[in-house]
Amino acid sequence: MTALSIVIPVFNERGNIGPLVQEVVQHLRGRIPFDIVCVDDQSQDDTRDVLTALKAEVPELRVLVHQRRSGQSTAIRTGVKHALSPWIATLDGDGQNDPADIPKLLAAREQADAQTKLFAGWRVDRKDTASKRWASRWANRIRQRLLRDDTPDTGCGIKLFERAAFLDLPYFDHMHRYLPALMQRAGWKTVSVPVSHRPRGSGQSKYTNLGRALVGIRDLMGVSWLIQRSHVTPVSEIGTGRKP
Prior knowledge:
transmembrane helix, Spore Coat Polysaccharide Biosynthesis Protein SpsA, Chain A, membrane, Glyco_trans_2-like, 244 residues, seven-stranded mixed β-sheet, cell membrane, 8 helices, alpha/beta, Glycosyltransferase family 2 protein
């Protein structure tokens, strides 16, 4: 039985995705039963061909292809919906997340209680440009003040979460950046785990600071509204005292 599914959204990552998949295999094979679900979001380079060739070397690899470009959040959700395991680990397709940190997230899960459904990577030593680090620092401060999610870094691509809890969350574009707040809104606990961060090996970032900021403001307002308009209702079954 598959115990962990690694979901990797990819868009134009021909130079990064092969080494990344091989690293996942290196760190997980023999340690835990797993599968890797790569979701190609209509790449315009030969990323799909690279993944197709890689399937011959990596039997754990599965490749899904969007029929139209739909964005990173949709790609993640597609991978989660098709995953074989009740627990999901995500990685960005650019290779900046280190698969060696996945066991660290699994170890944190072992130490946590059953109400903790999300273990979010926290990039303590980012390898991005100075302007990107500055923009991210301010975005995190504004988000924490508004959402009070007690999470220092929601933009980190490496996360570990329960599949059922994720699929129960409200879906919208860019939701992957607000998973801690959304999980907490649903009544679950979240934990931030320090992880490493690496420079991008090849290709270029799919986001600009201005574009990210403009979308982020709208999303912040929406997530804030969701939190204010929701509440968690405990449920027990008559005659058993059990919570369904």
